[in-house]
Amino acid sequence: MKQYILRRLLLLVPILIGITFLIFLIINLAPGTPLSGLIDPTVSQSDIDARAEQLGLNKPIIVQYFTWLRETVRGNLGYSIRYKRPVSELIRTRLWPTFLLSFSALILSFLIAVPIGVFSATRQYSKADYFFTIFAMAGISIPVFFFGIVVIKIFSFDLRWFPIGGMVTAGLRHANSWAYYKDVGKHLILPLVVLSYMGTAGYTRYVRSCMLEVVRQDYVRTARAKGLSEKVVIYKHALRNALIPVITILGMTLPAIFSGAILTETVFVWPGMGLLQVNAIEARDYPLLLGINLFLALLVIVGNLAADILYAVADPRIRYD
Asked: Are residues 238 and 202 in the same domain?
């Protein structure tokens, strides 16, 4: 196992270089420049050229890439054109709000989806199975932005139970006080409901499908023939193997925990990584976009590695020698 992890970590360097080069190339091939949204009609062309030279935008793309790569290796991800702040600082400040929302939604979704998926699979074609199937299909089909707007309309505008958006009420001080945490909790509920419902719908379908396949296996029938209780057969023998494909999905979900749910954060104006990405795209903030995508690429690789390790935990037959 240790040798396998070491090999995967060594592959990290060339993979990241290839990914960052493609991202850098695609971003720079887009029409316009980072200065497009910052240019005043009264600014002369000489001033624009001077600014482009100052930012290194007048150099060939390959030169710009290796300059960026050299600074990245030194820990300098650049300076945001829109926010006038270091990219690393912006990412660091947005990680906690995104982690709070996405991780809470992931845990809640998984805790709800696994029991529902198992229950639905063990009672296939029952009324409960049909109900949860409709529940899951609705969650998969409804657009996030539409569901978010409907939730805001009902619970914020009509009932006035929860805030419309944001993470904390403007002007609220004493960040470490009980009132602050309570206010954050109230702002968290609606985006958490929207995000966890979408996640629950997807995970429920995965768990149900995997369980239906596993419960038909010979070793499950053998376990029943030995006189084991149905609870032991399902939750100790069948579920453990059924979760292996779900672990793959969870491994790929790791980047989403930190990258942010773009639509959900945008609808609820949640100050996380998702909203930061949208703002960076709108402003053509190339340094910020590159920093975010580098961070996400690293998370994808780490998520895949974590999924491979969890395979061995879930299934004793899997070994990495």
From this structure: yes
